[in-house]
Amino acid sequence: MSDGIFYKITMAIIALFFVIALLTALSGCRALQPITDAIFGIERPPVVEQTPTNSLWQTVKKAKSNWITTLAIPIIALGAVAMFNGAAKLGMSAIIFGSVNLFMSLATSRFSLIMAVFGLVGSGLAVAVSILGKNKALKEIICGVQEVKDIAKEDNIDLVFQDKVKEVLQKQVTSTKKIVQNVKNKLKLKGEM
Length: 193
Fold this sequence. Notes:
Elements: H1 3-27, H2 33-40, H3 52-62, H4 67-84, H5 88-109, H6 112-154, H7 159-170, H8 174-190
């Protein structure tokens, strides 16, 4: 053999090695599995694709020992029947109870990370909504009381009414008075009061 042919054969083997290594890196060892199966005569059952519905059904089937999960499905169905038969409060309560029960049992057994993320986001949103709602309510109450006090002063409403308003405001604890004063200062700076 001449050196040129030997060089070409060597380069072809090296190129083939790099192609196989590249295929293996891109698609894992599954690319080589049919070849090794053919060489060693291994027969494998066909791979069934796992859909989300199939996965959920398999989880429910595996959770048969969990009686709470098994009980959740009939509770949802009975809640729907009760709701359509005129007992809307009972029906909705049963549907919500069954759905939450089923979700929690399936989520903790199969989808714990997803459930934790949704729980974290949901609780953060709930806290934000409650804080914003509290701040809006405080602002409206303080502005309303201030308007009543101003109207009482301008219209010379009897002193009994003014004294009653002062008595009610004096019954507030110190922390409430501080919060009210802070909100008033912020509203005055914004020009809303």
